[in-house]
Each structure stands twice: as C-alpha cells, then as structure tokens.
C-alpha cells in the first residue's frame, strides 16, 4: 500500500510543479463547450436540452487529451522498467496512475461543469445532477483511457489511436451520464442512472487494472 | 530457438491450409450459389413483409458471423497471451478485417431493411448501438495490431483489447430482451421452437452455413498470406 | 506477504467489486431505461405537454382514420390507450394490430402528436398461406 500512496504522491507533485498541463485541459474544456452556444445560437431551451450531452462529450474529449502522456513519460525515462521490477503488484501501480489522472482532470472537470451549465440555461437541480453524474462517471473515463494509453504506448500516431480505442468503450458511461439530466427534465429521479454509472465505474475498477498491467508488461518486454 | 518454434506450427498450418483451400473454395462457391438461388427463388414471401424479408438471408448470418468472429478473436487473443501460440497472432490479424466486413454488411443490410419496414434507416436503440460498437471494436483491433514497428507488440496489445471487448457480445445478444428496443427479439436462438416457418428457416440456415464457409475460407487464405508476410519480414530483418 | 498472496487478494478484491457492480445494476434496473414508453407507463408517469418522448404499443383494431395526409389512430397495450395524430408518410408495416413506435409529444387535450412513426415488427416469419391457415384453424398465437 505504501507503494501505492508513494506513486500517487509522486504523480500529483509532478503535476503540482507544472500546473500548466492541467490548465490547458480545463481551458480546452471551457473553449470547446462555449463554442456550442456560439454555433447554435442563443435559444435557451435548445441549449438547455443539449447541455448535458455537450458537457459530457467535452469532458470526455478533455480527459482523453491528457491521457496520451499518462504512461509515456515513465516509458521514456525508465520509470516504467523500475515499476515492472518492483516487488509489489503492477495492477496497483496502474490504479494509482489512473487515480492521479482522475484527481487532476476528472475532479476539476466535474466541479467546473456546473459553472458552464449556467451559460446553457440549466436550472439548479440539473446543475447538481450534472456534477453528480460527472463525479461518478469520470473515474470510468480515466480507467478506460488509462487502458487505451497503456495499449498504445510506443505506437505510431498514438493520440488518434487512443481515441479510437477509448471512445467506443466510454459510450455506455456517456449514454447514462447525459441521459440522467434528460430524465431529470422529464420529472423522474436520477438514482437509477447514478447507480448504473457507479456500476460501470466499479466494473472498470475491477477489470482495467489487470488489462493495463498486462499491456504495460508487454510494452516493457 | 524462438525462431524455430515460430516457424514450426505456422509451417505445418500452411501445408494443411494449402491442401484444404482449393476444395473449400469450390464448396463455398457451390453452397453460396445454391443458397442465393434458394433465397431469391425458392423461399416464399413473408405474410407481413413481402419480398423485403429476403434481406434477412444475408443480414442475420452476417450478424452471427461478426459476433462469432469477435468471440474467435478473443479466444485467439487468450491463446496468444497465455500460451504464446505464434499462429494465434497471425490468425487474429487475418480474421479481424473479415469479421469487421461482416459487421459492416450486417449494419448496411439492416439499415436497408429498416427503411421500408420500420420507416427509418437508423435509430439509436440498444441493439443497433451495441452492434455499431462491435464494428468500432473491430476497427480498434485492426488499427492497434498494425500500429507498431515491431508487429509482435501490436499482436499482443490487440489481444488484450479483444479480451476486454468481449463484454460487448452478451450486451448485443440480450439487448433486445433487457431494453424496449425497436429491433425485434430473437427468432431462432430461443428455448421453444423457432418463430420462423420452415420454408423460410431452411434457406436462412443454408445461407448461414454457406457464409460460415466463406468466413473460414477467407480467414484461412488471409492467415496463409500473413505467414508468408511475417516470414518475409523476418528474412529481411535477418539479412 | 508473498507476491502470490498479494495477487490473490487483488483478485478477490476485483471479484468483490464486480459483485457490488452486479448488485447495483440489479437493484437499479427498472423501466426507466427504455427506448419507448407504453400507454400504461404514460398514464402512470403523468408526462407533461411539450416533452418529446417515444410512445410504443399496438395500433388498435379499427382505429385508423385517414384524411389525406393526416392519420388518426389509437395506440394500445391492451390496458390503456393513447390517441395519436400524425401527418406524413407511414412505413410499409404500419397496419392495425401491428406494433408501432411514435415519437412526439402529448398535447394539453391528451392527444399525442407524432412527428415520426416507426413500425415495429415481431419475430415471426412465415409465408402468407401459412399465416392464413393458422388464423383459420385458431392456432394463431398473438404477439403478446
């Protein structure tokens, strides 16, 4: 466990020293979302209806943008070789990397999304629901994205390939995340959607660390 | 040592496939010819859908083969990762584009069937969406296996992806039962008798077997090519 | 702890996590996640006007009236019914007694105005003579 926290602390302090990397991701999220009202026009009821989908898609793209470097730096400077040789499970190392990624992207994106939601004319309960679904759903994106990042480690054109691999696997999370706000607008509760988002996150939590570890091992060979 | 092991099995496979392929190709052509004749001239029109029902004879077998093909891809992936079976990687490389083509045929014919019958080319219901995802998973597998300078790395990365993507298969199969979909539930793979009259069922199963032959033929042929290609690359690298 | 024991614990942790996920899905799954609502669900949910949704059911026997491009019919799930109006071209399979999915919204008078009509067909395939013979012999089993 001490290895887990050590790796997590290391990754977080690396980001802390270069906050610009996170800033770029958040700036992308804001700019991409703000383009929609400009492109579609100021009709508030149209904007409110598409808000959840737009914010979820933008969050997904923003999370993917920062994933390409998740293992690449460690792969290039030899840290990955040390992790492979370390006496504690690589699965936990994979989990620590994904958790660090979520803390620096998924978490701030979830907190930022309600602010942008105001610009789309979402009401109070919808803003809360948006934040709740993003908080429960973005860990899945980090885990699946981590898998795609590990699989494409050292590949040609890894950025586009990463998106091609990760996006289809993220579709269920996207459907239930954006669907929750739609059901709320229809007057139903969002408990079902949040429960399913949580279930998806747990499935990703249980499976992806093994796959990421396997992918890292074959990359290190 | 590793090189010898690599050559042993594929070489035996290649001798086997060279003996089988001509006969298999002939049988496939014959069966497809009979199947297409049955589908167009022998099978009756449906009581509700009329002539349009004939699209089923291509659509349904394509769906089965694309799902079966992905299951095979996962099995090949497992045998590559667990037993390091060298032929598995080459066969997966050969099978993925064939499976992807069947998935594409399934989506296209389904779309053409949906327009006159349902009144739309496409809806985002659970069955259609999960089938589209299967197609994307195939594309990911193809792209990933060919994205590395050392082909062995691509093989192993794609094998891991194939094992993860297998989650989608039960979702496709049971989507029509779990959710209210526009797509109708299963007619043949159900516990009581199939809901298809024999005069339509027989051509459908015949076409399914013919297209299975085509699938096997294409995969064997492409595997042979992959073996030759890998040999050539190894020879070039050694020279 | 030996590495082998550690991996065993990790595996147990993963299986436990999967179990919780399965339990969550099983408790959460209800009729919320559907492609369309049946007339009974529409009555229960009190869906307000101006909200677009999909309505699914069977076209009630003898309810179809055509006035030029305008079609009026009733959708039933044998329990409740909803009246529907639609202006436009109908799919081939649209007929009385068949499954249909309409997308649109309820008006203040409780009539559903459809913007799009999709026909749902069942999983039965047979030649017309067989269907006729089955109906005449009384062995016809209805879709539901």
UniProtKB/TrEMBL annotation, chain A:
Required for the export of heme to the periplasm for the biogenesis of c-type cytochromes. The gene is ccmB. It comes from Reyranella aquatilis. Keywords: Cell inner membrane, Cell membrane, Cytochrome c-type biogenesis, Membrane, Transmembrane, Transmembrane helix, Transport. Pfam families: CcmB. It is a multi-pass membrane protein. This is Heme exporter protein B. InterPro entries: Cyt_c_biogenesis_CcmB (IPR003544), Cyt_c_CcmB_bac (IPR026031). Belongs to the CcmB/CycW/HelB family.
TrEMBL record, chain B:
Residues 26-183 form the Cytochrome c assembly protein domain. InterPro entries: Cyt_c_assembly, Cyt_c_biogenesis_CcmC, Cyt_c_biogenesis_CcsA/CcmC. It is a multi-pass membrane protein. The chain crosses the membrane at residues 20-43, 63-83, 95-114, 126-145, 157-176, 196-221. Keywords: Cell inner membrane, Cell membrane, Cytochrome c-type biogenesis, Membrane, Transmembrane, Transmembrane helix, Transport. It is found in: Cell inner membrane; Membrane. The keyword Membrane applies. It comes from the Bacteria. Pfam families: Cytochrom_C_asm. Belongs to the CcmC/CycZ/HelC family. Required for the export of heme to the periplasm for the biogenesis of c-type cytochromes. NCBIfam families: ccmC. This is Heme exporter protein C. The gene is ccmC.
Automatic annotation (TrEMBL), chain C:
Pfam families: CcmE. Keywords: Cell membrane, Cytochrome c-type biogenesis, Heme, Iron, Membrane, Metal-binding, Signal-anchor, Transmembrane, Transmembrane helix. It comes from the Bacteria. Heme binds at residues 121, 125. It is found in: Cell membrane; Membrane. Residues 1-7 are cytoplasmic. Residues 29-144 are extracellular. InterPro entries: CcmE, CcmE-like_sf, NA-bd_OB-fold. It is a single-pass type II membrane protein. HAMAP family: CcmE (MF_01959). Heme chaperone required for the biogenesis of c-type cytochromes. Transiently binds heme delivered by CcmC and transfers the heme to apo-cytochromes in a process facilitated by CcmF and CcmH. Belongs to the CcmE/CycJ family. PANTHER family: CYTOCHROME C-TYPE BIOGENESIS PROTEIN CCME HOMOLOG, MITOCHONDRIAL (PTHR34128:SF2). This is Cytochrome c-type biogenesis protein CcmE. It comes from Reyranella aquatilis. The gene is ccmE.
């Amino acid at each position: 466990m001490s290895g887990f926290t050590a790796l997590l602390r290391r990754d977080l302090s690396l980001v802390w020293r270069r906050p610009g990397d996170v800033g770029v991701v958040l700036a992308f999220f804001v700019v991409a979302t703000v383009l929609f009202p400009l492109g579609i026009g100021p009709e508030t009821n149209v904007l409110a209806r598409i808000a959840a989908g737009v914010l979820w898609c933008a969050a997904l793209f923003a999370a993917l943008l920062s994933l390409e470097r998740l293992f690449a730096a460690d792969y290039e400077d030899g840290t990955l070789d040390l992790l492979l040789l370390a006496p504690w499970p690589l699965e936990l190392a994979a989990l620590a990397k994904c958790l660090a990624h979520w803390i620096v992207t998924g978490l701030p994106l979830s907190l930022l999304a309600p602010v942008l939601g105001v610009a789309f004319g979402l009401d109070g309960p919808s803003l809360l629901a948006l934040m709740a679904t993003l908080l429960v759903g973005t860990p899945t994106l980090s885990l699946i994205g981590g898998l795609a990042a590990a699989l494409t480690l050292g590949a040609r054109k890894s950025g586009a390939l990463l998106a091609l691999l990760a996006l289809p696997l993220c579709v269920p999370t996207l459907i239930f995340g954006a669907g929750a706000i739609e059901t709320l607008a229809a007057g139903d509760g969002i408990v079902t959607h949040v429960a399913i988002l949580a279930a998806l996150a747990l499935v990703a939590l249980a499976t992806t660390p093994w796959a990421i570890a396997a992918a890292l091992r074959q990359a290190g060979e | 040592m590793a090189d010898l092991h690599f050559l042993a099995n594929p070489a035996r496979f290649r001798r086997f496939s060279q003996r089988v392929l001509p006969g298999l190709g002939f049988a496939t052509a014959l069966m497809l010819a009979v199947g297409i004749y049955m589908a167009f001239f022998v099978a009756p029109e449906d009581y509700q859908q009329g002539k349009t029902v004939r699209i089923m004879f291509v659509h349904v077998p394509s769906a089965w083969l694309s799902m079966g093909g992905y299951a095979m891809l996962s099995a090949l992936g497992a045998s590559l990762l667990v037993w390091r079976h060298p032929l598995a990687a080459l066969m997966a490389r050969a099978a993925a584009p064939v499976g992807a083509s069947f998935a594409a045929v399934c989506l296209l014919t389904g779309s053409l069937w949906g327009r006159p019958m349902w009144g739309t080319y496409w809806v985002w219901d659970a069955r259609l969406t999960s089938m589209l995802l299967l197609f994307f998973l195939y594309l990911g597998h193809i792209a990933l296996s060919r994205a590395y300078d050392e082909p062995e790395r691509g093989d192993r990365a794609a094998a891991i992806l194939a094992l993860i993507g297998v989650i989608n298969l039960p979702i496709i199969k049971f989507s029509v039962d779990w959710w209210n979909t526009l797509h109708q539930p299963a007619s043949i793979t159900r516990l009581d008798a199939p809901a298809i009259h024999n005069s339509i069922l027989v051509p459908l199963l015949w076409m399914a077997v013919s297209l299975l032959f085509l699938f096997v033929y294409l995969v064997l042929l492409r595997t042979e090519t992959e073996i030759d290609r890998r040999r050539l690359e190894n020879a070039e690298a050694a020279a | 702890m030996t590495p082998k024991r550690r991996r065993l614990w990790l595996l147990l942790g993963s299986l436990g996590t999967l179990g919780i996920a399965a339990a969550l899905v099983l408790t959460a799954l209800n009729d919320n996640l559907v492609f369309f609502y049946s007339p009974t669900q529409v009555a229960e949910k009190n869906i307000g006007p101006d909200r677009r949704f999909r309505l699914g059911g069977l076209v009630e026997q003898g309810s179809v009236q055509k006035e030029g491009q305008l079609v009026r019919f009733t959708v039933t799930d044998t329990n409740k019914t909803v009246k529907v109006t639609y202006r436009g071209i109908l799919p081939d399979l649209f007929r009385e007694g068949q499954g249909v999915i309409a997308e649109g919204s309820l008006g203040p008078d409780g009539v559903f105005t459809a913007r799009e009509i999709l026909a749902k067909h069942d999983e039965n395939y047979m030649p017309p003579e067989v269907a006729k013979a089955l109906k005449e012999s009384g062995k016809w089993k209805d879709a539901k």
